[in-house]
Design goal:
single chain; 163 residues; mainly alpha; Arc Repressor Mutant, subunit A; 2 strands; 6% strand; globular; disordered N terminus
């Protein structure tokens, strides 16, 4: 019996999924969601936030960093907030000198947002802080063998998000 369920799992893992998720899939999904959520919260807590930026403000900076230039309406859509809320976020980031506004070449009525050197430095510092904290935690709490397992798990997680 044990061999049959193992063979079934192997077939499922090989990509021959014929049924929907089973109880074990649901358990793994719940545990993964919980641990990732806790890790993200911990990384946020361990990262400096001198400017007292909200999560949406930090996410906005990250999106602009990633894309170079964005319309406020595109950021609002990506962050699932109203354009009015995004306007407040943009105004605050502009007051802090983290973003620059420039007219769109396509439509002069539209404004593109880009990062100022201070905004770019803030994003890069946050990323560095998170990476350094996580590296220290891995060094202090995780064995070399467990780090190798994490690298394998990262490859599996990458398969989940790659299209």
């Amino acid at each position: 019996m044990e061999n049959e369920s193992f063979a079934g799992e192997g077939a499922r893992n090989a990509g021959n999924i014929t049924d929907g998720p089973d109880a074990r899939d649901i358990e793994v999904a719940g545990s993964l969601r919980t641990v990732l959520h806790r890790l993200i919260k911990l990384l946020r807590r361990e990262t400096r936030n001198e400017a007292q930026l909200s999560l949406t403000e930090r996410a906005t900076l990250g999106l602009i960093y990633q894309h170079g230039k964005l319309l406020p309406s595109d950021i609002a859509r990506m962050e699932k907030v109203t354009t009015q809320s995004m306007s407040q976020v943009v105004n605050h980031l502009f007051e802090l000198n983290y973003i620059h506004r420039s007219p769109s070449a396509d439509d002069k009525r539209k404004v593109l947002l880009s990062l100022t050197p201070a905004g770019r430095a803030d994003v890069e510092q946050r990323r560095l802080d998170k990476q350094e904290w996580l590296a220290r935690a891995l060094h202090e709490k995780v064995s070399p063998e467990e780090r190798e397992l994490l690298m394998e798990a990262i490859m599996v997680l990458t398969k989940l998000i790659d299209e």
